[in-house]
Amino acid sequence: MDVARIDWAAVGTALGGQGFASLGPLLDAEARATLAGAFAEDAPYRSHVHMARHGFGRGEYKYFRYPLPAPIAGLRTALYPGCAAIANRWAERMKQDVRYPEAHADFLDTCHAAGQARPTPLILSYREGDYNCLHQDLYGGIVFPLQVVILLSEPGKDFDGGEFVLTEQRPRMQSRAHVVPMRAGEAVVFAVNERPVRGTRGDYRVKIRHGVSTLSRGARLATGIIFHDAT
To answer: Which range of residues forms the domain containing residue 172?
Structure first.
């Protein structure tokens, strides 16, 4: 986990241009194996969701309980300040009153004071034929505008298909889709709900949704780091 080497200026430029950016590899093979191996356990998690039961797609995911696993807790804390600086610039451009504090602990205090106290980092498991419908991870009235996904499995080796996808809905335009290439251990940061886009008459808002395409072979695991907590 080497967050210090992240070029946040380049990340901000990529996010502004397409709504997502690679943060590079942030989990090594040992950390990935530990997280993946714990998926079958019950103790680390507060909730277990089977997507098909709710019309979310096919596959399953589990929300971690507090205290979070060390790699997830460490990354959630370390990645937040760089993301918060970008989030504050976006808020200014979209003329939003909200401003995000520099430290993640202070932001969580705001979430918890508003009744959003359940941890949202999660691990997701897909097998052949599974997929995740396009969606947004909002969870309450307080929403941090960026989140991170880290792939735990190796494309082409552990699975085929199962691409991470994003769609953008611009006003009075058809949706634009992105297929985001990822390698095992790589982290991608992306917009949770909306992002500002510069137009001829100033900034306007673009709605973002994300999902996972159908797995054609094997098994795929990923972990998601969401910075706001849930009601």
So the answer is: 3-226
Q: What is the pLDDT of residues 119-155, one digit of tens each?
A: 999 999 999 999 999 999 999 999 999 999 999 999 9
Q: Is residue 219 part of a domain?
A: yes
**What is the tens place of the pLDDT at every residue in 165-206?**
999 987 777 888 999 999 999 999 999 999 999 887 888 899
DSSP the chain: --GGG--HHHHHHHHHHHSEEEEEE-S-HHHHHHHHHGGG-STTEEEEEEHHHHTSEESEEEEEPSSPPHHHHHHHHHHHHHHHHHHHHHHHHTT------SSHHHHHHHHHHTT--B---EEEEEETT-EEEEE----SS---SEEEEEE-S-BTTTEEE--EEEEEE-TTS--EEEEE---TTEEEEEESSEEEEEETTEEEEEEEEEEEPPEEEEEEEEEEEESS-B-
Do the domain assignments include residue 231? no
pTM above 0.90, yes or no: yes
The number of domains in the chain is 1
Residue 132's domain is classified under what CATH number?
A: 2.60.120.620
